[in-house]
Amino acid sequence: MSADDATALDAAPSSWPAGRYRLRRNSLTSQVLTRITSGILVLWAAVTLSFVSLHLAPGDIVSLLIGEQLRTPEVEAAIRLEWGLDKPLLSQYVTYLLRILHGDFGRSYILQTDVSGLVLSQMLPTLKLTAAALVVAIVFAVASALLTAGKRLPRSIAGGLELILISTPSFWLGIVLLFVFSFTLKLFPVAGDRTFSALVLPALSLGLSLGAVVGQVLREGLERALEEPFMLTVRSWGTRDFVLRLRHGLRHASLPAVTLAGWLVGNLLSGAVITEAVFGRPGLGRITVDAVLSHDLPVVLAVAILSAFVYVVLSTLVDVLYLLLDPRLRNDGAEAGH
Fold this sequence. Notes:
Elements: H1 3-56, H2 61-66, H3 73-83, H4 89-101, E1 107-108, E2 113-114, H5 115-148, H6 152-167, H7 170-184, H8 197-226, H9 229-236, H10 241-279, H11 284-293, H12 297-325, H13 327-337
Helix pairs in contact: 1-4, 1-12, 1-13, 5-8, 5-10, 5-12, 6-8, 7-8, 7-10, 8-10, 10-11, 10-12, 11-12, 12-13
């Protein structure tokens, strides 16, 4: 063996960790980009489906877009110009994609206003309610799992409560909360969105059922994690039980719960429509119901596309979080490449 070969062999081990780190980092980046690309494809499919459904719907497209508005030659001409109905179908499709890409959802001829401004003005209250409900679900699930995992009586009590919450429709739970805390105890306002207190009951009615589902999965995962051999080592260090559950067990138990929460988070958007109606809150729910009843198709399409956008963003964030929580998923691509 030459001196150069010996030098190369001596230097190789020190270079392997750096190379493996770069490989794993590249693998994580590629997986994140893959999930983002998948989200973009889903959004493209949602926009394409809205365009196809408009053209496959029975009746004249102009009539569908006008809705219950009085039909006049001027309005018909404006719609044909706006949607490019006098152009080939492929040209209409490209124009529609470009308009959506620029945030232009057309005009509501029933409300006589731009759809983009209307939907965006009502989107913030809905997102605020959805975010608050998600916080309620996470806090409830984590607290339930940490306090009851591996404990027979608390586990039975929590399981019964979770079963009741899962079986109860969110709108019915909202009515009960209104009767108890608004009409009887007068602790929270009945309707509106002016103060933070007006957000508490809607968030509870929307988030508790999701928290109950995630809590059951999280508890089972935490109980399995507590039986792992590494937990015995951590206990031998004198770690307190609650710290053991919170710092060491929760991360290992959260992987299935995160996956489930990503799938259920879309239910928050659909449930927000009914919850907003029960509590008299502004948001996408109210304008969606009004648009469906008045056959205001541009508003309905805009709400559907924006809902798909929010769902895709949240699902992508959950997928990325899953990669960060589970190093094995990040290493799979690196080991395959290595």
